[in-house]
Write a sequence for this structure.
């Protein structure tokens, strides 16, 4: 909301956002750069996003499809009702990404390799980069080109995904100079 933007423009060094499609992030970066510039400041930008990466796109998408199959329909409905009542602008942006979409993994792909399925059942960061390690690295590079310099990545299960990201994703990012 406007109050949060004012605080960020006036005091933040890194303005951290929940991941959204690149066009939405580009718009937010431009807006916040203007707000910070009006105060004689510059900002750096970061993204908080989950990652489900595998050797191939098909394996990564099959993984998130299996996760969705384990969630009872009632749990999704209950979580969506709760999140609809939140007053957070950021949460409404995340919730808006799943509105009117199906419940299959690929139906929740809101831009290339960006999946909004996490937002079906939890508040906060509701998107994930899903795909092969190479495609996930390409998406991270795409956000970097928009002005995002810092990334907070996670996955489920936490330990296993941290190991996979460290072993498979980070070397690709190092190769393009992004670590």
């Amino acid at each position: 909301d406007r109050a949060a933007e004012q605080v960020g423009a006036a005091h933040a060094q890194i303005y951290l956002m929940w991941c959204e499609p690149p066009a939405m992030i580009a718009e937010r970066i431009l807006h916040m750069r203007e707000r910070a510039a009006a105060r004689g400041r510059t900002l750096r930008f970061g993204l908080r996003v989950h990652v489900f990466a595998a050797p191939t796109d098909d394996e990564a998408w099959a993984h998130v499809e299996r996760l969705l199959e384990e969630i009872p329909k009632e749990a999704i409905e209950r979580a969506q009702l709760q999140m609809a009542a939140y007053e957070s602008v950021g949460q409404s942006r995340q919730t808006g990404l799943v509105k009117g979409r199906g419940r299959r993994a690929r139906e929740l792909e809101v831009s290339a390799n960006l999946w909004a399925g996490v937002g079906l059942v939890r508040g906060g960061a509701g998107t994930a980069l899903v795909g092969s390690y190479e495609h996930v690295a390409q998406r991270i590079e795409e956000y970097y080109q928009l002005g995002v310099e810092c990334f907070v990545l996670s996955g489920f299960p936490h330990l296993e995904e941290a190991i996979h990201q460290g072993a498979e994703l980070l070397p690709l990012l190092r190769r393009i100079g992004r670590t």
User: Anything to note?
Assistant: The first helix runs from residue 2 to 11.
